[in-house]
Design a protein that fits this description.
By secondary structure, the chain is an alpha+beta fold. It is built from 13 helices and eleven strands. The structure holds cobalamin (B12) and iron/sulfur cluster (2 copies).
């Protein structure tokens, strides 16, 4: 077994279903990122603007970096947002179990250590929060294509995928890009209730995305968004629920983390909770991201 195959087998043994290796990004895509932040599409997520230089060049993150390894873990679950009962809020699938950052970070760190020992290299592992465009690298490594809804989509797994990345100085043979399978479909564009999708460039205007407002924003949510927020208490899955590539993947549940289902949660129960009760119950959940204040704000808009 050669070294690349050893790494692949190791990552698969940890439960990652899709794995690929990418070179640095084409300038076309790093320029696209700069255009996006400079146009204000990152809304109040100021860290994204601050990451511009690092996102443009992996050597700014790790001197001597040669390869980005992307590992995708699938998740799935039944139901769709139309099946939510009155009085309940909906949590997007990616967040409806233990926080995936906590689960995946130890696994990708093990892979980074393995690369370091096999190649005498230096590697850094990230899950979501690093200064790296995980979807763009995933597309570049052939894991799938960037859909019109901006998601990384794979023919077998759809877009219900958590992505993790490893930047490494190891020179590991790179994989090749795959083709786009959106065709003439426009279901996500038609379904997004707030017109957040920037059609031509396959990116999102965060100022219009429900997921930005109910997870990331700290202040009050504008009427033109909150009017369309129900039933989403945390995140929004609409542009993925309508995607034909997710029809079959929803029935799969091969993640080693179990099978997150689309959760519904009682709004009055949440409203009754004290800050301390909330923090203790949801400390390992993505619900802690908007904090108690953010969740109370979301509940009051949904009730
Ligand atoms: C900031 C952020 C958000 C923001 C902004 C979203 C956005 N679309 O940019 C908000 C809070 C709104 C958000 C929402 C969601 N997010 Co988010 N988010 C991120 C984060 C941290 C950075 C994304 C970013 O840099 N955006 C800026 C834009 C410009 O970059 P980009 O989307 O990567 O786009 C690049 C590529 O698409 C590329 N590109 C376009 N076409 C092509 C073609 C080729 C060939 C190539 C190579 C590149 C390429 O060009 C762009 C610029 O480089 C990433 C993690 C990470 N570090 O990457 C997670 C991430 C993108 N989010 C994720 C998820 C799950 C979600 C939600 C589904 C959560 C939910 N259910 O509510 C929604 C989905 C909204 C949507 N349709 O995109 C997953 C996506 C997994 C996947 N299968 O794609 C990620 C990767 C987290 C993870 N580690 O798993 N998110
Ligand atoms: S997550 Fe929701 S609001 Fe954001 S682009 Fe998708 S459908 Fe639109
Ligand atoms: S709904 Fe259609 S256009 Fe949108 S991402 Fe899926 S296949 Fe592409």
């Amino acid at each position: 077994m050669d070294k690349k195959e050893t790494i692949l087998k190791f990552a698969q043994s940890l439960g990652f279903s899709l794995i690929g290796f990418s070179s640095s990004l084409d300038k076309k895509y790093t320029d696209l990122y700069s255009w996006w932040v400079q146009s204000g599409f990152s809304a109040g997520m100021f860290y994204l603007k601050a990451q511009e230089e690092k996102r443009a060049n992996i050597e700014e993150v790790l001197p001597g970096a040669k390869t980005v390894m992307i590992c995708a873990m699938p998740f799935a679950g039944g139901g769709d947002s139309s099946s939510i009962e009155a009085g309940y809020g909906s949590i997007a699938r990616y967040a409806s179990d233990r926080d995936y950052h906590l689960e995946l970070k130890p696994l990708v760190t093990k892979i980074a250590d393995k690369i370091d020992s096999l190649y005498s290299a230096k590697s850094i592992a990230y899950v979501d929060t690093g200064p790296i465009s995980e979807r763009a690298y995933a597309a570049n490594a052939g894991l799938g294509w960037i859909g019109k809804n901006a998601m990384l989509i794979n023919k077998d797994w759809g877009s219900w995928l958590w992505l993790s990345s490893i930047i490494t100085t190891a020179e590991i043979p790179h994989d090749t890009i795959t083709t786009d399978h959106c065709g003439k479909c426009r279901k996500c564009l038609d379904a997004c209730p707030t017109n957040a999708i920037l059609d031509e460039v396959r990116m999102i205007d965060s100022n219009r995305c429900i997921s930005y407002w109910n997870i990331e924003s700290k202040g009050s949510i504008p009427r033109e968004i909150s009017d369309h927020m129900s039933p989403w208490l945390l995140g929004c899955d609409i542009c993925q629920e309508v995607c034909p590539w997710n029809e079959h993947s929803l029935k799969k549940s091969r993640s080693v983390l179990g099978s997150p289902k689309k959760e519904q949660i009682s709004l009055s129960e949440l409203q009754k909770m004290t800050k301390e009760e909330f923090q203790s119950k949801y400390k390992d959940s993505a619900l802690s991201r908007p904090r108690w204040q953010g969740i109370q704000r979301n509940v009051s808009l949904l009730k």
